[in-house]
Amino acid sequence: MGEIKSALELALERTKDVKSDPESLRRHETETEGKRLYARLRNGEDVDIPAVLKQQPADRRRWMRQGLFEVAINNLTLPQSEADLANLDTAETVMAHLVRDRGTLTELMKQMRQFFSQYLDDRSQLTESLKKQYEPRLKQREQQYAQQYGRQVKLDPMQDPEFSNVLQNNMERLDSQYRGALDEVYTHLRTMFEP
Q1: Considering only 17-21, 33-37, 64-68, which range has the smallest mean pLDDT?
Q2: Within 13 Å and on the Cβ side, how many CA atoms surround 129?
Q3: CA angle at residue 127 from 122 to 133, to 5 degrees?
């Protein structure tokens, strides 16, 4: 009977002929450093981005800028609450050091704040509108449960599977509309980025 090999041994056998690329490894490490730098800023640390970038050799500086930019743009997502709007401040602070035209960036981020606020308002309005539409059905179910169990029952529409499905489907449509516009912003930001 053959010898049973561990997953690690099998993985090592499959990759034994693969040569590591030191430059690729340095690039990955430096981009990761840029991402960590962003996390420090987001956590409220006072970081001098130009000074940190200046300390890097030219090739690594480009990679660190790339890591910073990627994490900044990836943090520009549709907010789930007002608290998520704070992500824009960190992203704007970082991108101000990475793009060609700061004036355009400032205007674009102002529009993003309005865009995200409108999105949150639309989500709230959609939820309230669907609750009002669903209210007669909910009242009917409450009456049925009251007759069945002999006491008043108060149902929350958010706990009703049917309502949750309708809400989720409508939210997905709303998100899809907003994501289309957000993709255009990503494209615009990428054209402004200076590696």
Answers
A1: 17-21
A2: 10
A3: 125
